[in-house]
Design goal:
The chain is of the alpha/beta class and 111 residues long. The chain has three helices and five strands; from the N terminus they run E-H-E-H-E-H-E-E.
Length: 111
């Protein structure tokens, strides 16, 4: 029997360490993978992430991607479905049908 897939989270060039830490903590609690697509607007060293992610970082599944191209190639190889999250969407998230394995993509906070 295979394990059910959970939703995954992708952060495109995040620039606020506290937000990234919050998402890492949430993902650790839910068993979700977090993808950080660089370059980030802050130091992505383990020390910096440990401060932002507090005690949850060891439990978080973090996958780093150097660029959008690398992430896009990874998604294509795995036939991943991206769900783009924006404040400008016509459909609210409550009206969308999510499926296991979807990747929720958040853009850069300052842009």
């Amino acid at each position: 029997m295979t394990e059910p897939k959970t939703l995954e989270i992708a952060l495109y060039q995040p620039d606020i360490p506290g937000n990234t830490g919050t998402i890492l903590r949430l993902a650790a609690c839910l068993g979700a993978v977090v993808h950080v697509i660089g370059p980030a607007g802050f130091d992505l060293s383990d020390r910096a992430l440990k401060r932002a992610g507090m005690d949850y970082l060891e439990m978080a599944a973090l996958q780093r991607h150097v660029s959008w191209r690398e992430f896009e190639a990874w998604c294509g190889a795995g036939k991943k479905r991206l769900v783009l999250l924006t404040t400008k969407a016509e459909t609210p998230y409550t009206g969308h049908t999510f499926v296991p394995g979807d990747i929720l993509l958040f853009g850069r906070e300052s842009a």
